[in-house]
Amino acid sequence: MDLNEYEQSAREWDALVGVDAERANVVFDRLHVLAKEMRESADGRAALVGLMAHESAGVRLLAATECLVWDPVRARAVLAAIEDAGGLHGVSAKYTLQSFEAGTLDLDW
Q: Does the reported pTM lie above 0.85?
Protein backbone atom coordinates (compact mmCIF):
# COMPACT_ATOMS: atom_id res chain seq x y z
CA MET A 1 0.00 0.00 0.00
CA ASP A 2 1.35 3.41 -0.93
CA LEU A 3 -0.87 6.18 0.39
CA ASN A 4 1.50 8.91 -0.78
CA GLU A 5 1.52 7.63 -4.36
CA TYR A 6 -2.28 7.35 -4.34
CA GLU A 7 -2.74 10.85 -2.92
CA GLN A 8 -0.25 12.39 -5.38
CA SER A 9 -1.87 10.61 -8.31
CA ALA A 10 -5.35 11.65 -7.14
CA ARG A 11 -4.23 15.28 -6.94
CA GLU A 12 -2.72 14.98 -10.41
CA TRP A 13 -5.95 13.49 -11.76
CA ASP A 14 -7.96 16.28 -10.13
CA ALA A 15 -5.80 18.90 -11.84
CA LEU A 16 -6.15 17.21 -15.24
CA VAL A 17 -9.90 16.56 -15.24
CA GLY A 18 -11.58 18.98 -17.60
CA VAL A 19 -8.20 20.13 -18.94
CA ASP A 20 -6.52 17.10 -20.51
CA ALA A 21 -8.83 14.09 -20.67
CA GLU A 22 -6.26 11.80 -22.26
CA ARG A 23 -3.69 12.34 -19.51
CA ALA A 24 -6.41 12.27 -16.85
CA ASN A 25 -7.49 8.84 -18.09
CA VAL A 26 -3.93 7.50 -17.89
CA VAL A 27 -3.64 8.75 -14.30
CA PHE A 28 -7.09 7.35 -13.47
CA ASP A 29 -6.05 3.91 -14.69
CA ARG A 30 -2.99 4.07 -12.42
CA LEU A 31 -5.23 5.15 -9.52
CA HIS A 32 -7.52 2.21 -10.15
CA VAL A 33 -4.63 -0.24 -9.82
CA LEU A 34 -3.44 1.44 -6.62
CA ALA A 35 -6.95 1.49 -5.14
CA LYS A 36 -7.46 -2.20 -5.83
CA GLU A 37 -4.22 -2.92 -3.97
CA MET A 38 -5.20 -0.66 -1.08
CA ARG A 39 -8.64 -2.28 -0.74
CA GLU A 40 -6.97 -5.62 0.02
CA SER A 41 -5.72 -4.60 3.47
CA ALA A 42 -7.27 -3.00 6.54
CA ASP A 43 -4.54 -0.35 6.51
CA GLY A 44 -5.23 0.44 2.86
CA ARG A 45 -8.96 0.72 3.46
CA ALA A 46 -8.33 2.96 6.47
CA ALA A 47 -6.08 5.18 4.35
CA LEU A 48 -8.82 5.54 1.73
CA VAL A 49 -11.34 6.38 4.47
CA GLY A 50 -8.98 9.10 5.69
CA LEU A 51 -8.79 10.59 2.21
CA MET A 52 -12.54 11.20 2.26
CA ALA A 53 -11.68 14.27 4.38
CA HIS A 54 -9.03 15.57 1.97
CA GLU A 55 -9.04 19.24 0.99
CA SER A 56 -9.34 18.37 -2.71
CA ALA A 57 -12.83 17.52 -3.97
CA GLY A 58 -11.30 15.25 -6.61
CA VAL A 59 -9.39 13.26 -4.01
CA ARG A 60 -12.53 13.01 -1.85
CA LEU A 61 -14.54 11.86 -4.88
CA LEU A 62 -12.10 9.09 -5.71
CA ALA A 63 -11.70 7.94 -2.10
CA ALA A 64 -15.42 8.01 -1.32
CA THR A 65 -16.18 5.99 -4.44
CA GLU A 66 -13.76 3.29 -3.28
CA CYS A 67 -15.16 3.38 0.27
CA LEU A 68 -18.79 2.81 -0.72
CA VAL A 69 -18.37 -0.93 -0.26
CA TRP A 70 -17.16 -0.95 3.37
CA ASP A 71 -18.19 2.49 4.68
CA PRO A 72 -21.34 3.32 2.71
CA VAL A 73 -22.86 5.79 5.17
CA ARG A 74 -19.84 8.05 5.29
CA ALA A 75 -19.00 7.60 1.60
CA ARG A 76 -22.56 8.49 0.54
CA ALA A 77 -22.42 11.65 2.66
CA VAL A 78 -19.12 12.70 1.08
CA LEU A 79 -20.40 12.02 -2.43
CA ALA A 80 -23.68 13.85 -1.73
CA ALA A 81 -21.74 16.92 -0.55
CA ILE A 82 -19.62 16.84 -3.71
CA GLU A 83 -22.78 16.48 -5.81
CA ASP A 84 -24.34 19.47 -4.04
CA ALA A 85 -21.25 21.58 -4.77
CA GLY A 86 -21.87 21.11 -8.50
CA GLY A 87 -19.34 21.15 -11.30
CA LEU A 88 -17.80 18.19 -13.06
CA HIS A 89 -17.04 16.36 -9.81
CA GLY A 90 -20.63 16.94 -8.73
CA VAL A 91 -21.90 15.22 -11.86
CA SER A 92 -19.50 12.31 -11.29
CA ALA A 93 -20.63 12.01 -7.67
CA LYS A 94 -24.30 12.01 -8.73
CA TYR A 95 -23.88 9.18 -11.22
CA THR A 96 -21.60 7.22 -8.89
CA LEU A 97 -24.30 7.32 -6.21
CA GLN A 98 -26.99 6.35 -8.71
CA SER A 99 -24.93 3.40 -9.95
CA PHE A 100 -24.18 2.28 -6.40
CA GLU A 101 -27.85 2.46 -5.38
CA ALA A 102 -28.85 0.52 -8.52
CA GLY A 103 -26.24 -2.16 -7.80
CA THR A 104 -24.41 -1.53 -11.06
CA LEU A 105 -21.27 0.21 -9.79
CA ASP A 106 -18.29 -1.97 -10.74
CA LEU A 107 -15.07 -1.07 -8.95
CA ASP A 108 -13.28 -4.27 -9.96
CA TRP A 109 -12.83 -3.75 -13.71
A: yes
Domain 3-102 carries which CATH code?
A: 1.25.40.70
In whole angstroms, what is the distance from residue 67 CA to residue 31 CA? 14
Name the percent of the chain lying above pLDDT 70: 99
Distance CA 26, CA 68 (A): 23
Residue-wise pLDDT for 59-68, tens only, equals: 999 999 999 9
Average pLDDT over all residues of the chain = 97
User: Which residue pairs from 81-89 have beta carbons closer than 8 angstroms and sit at least 24 positions apart in sequence?
Assistant: 82/57, 85/57, 87/57, 88/17, 88/18, 89/17, 89/57, 89/58, 89/61
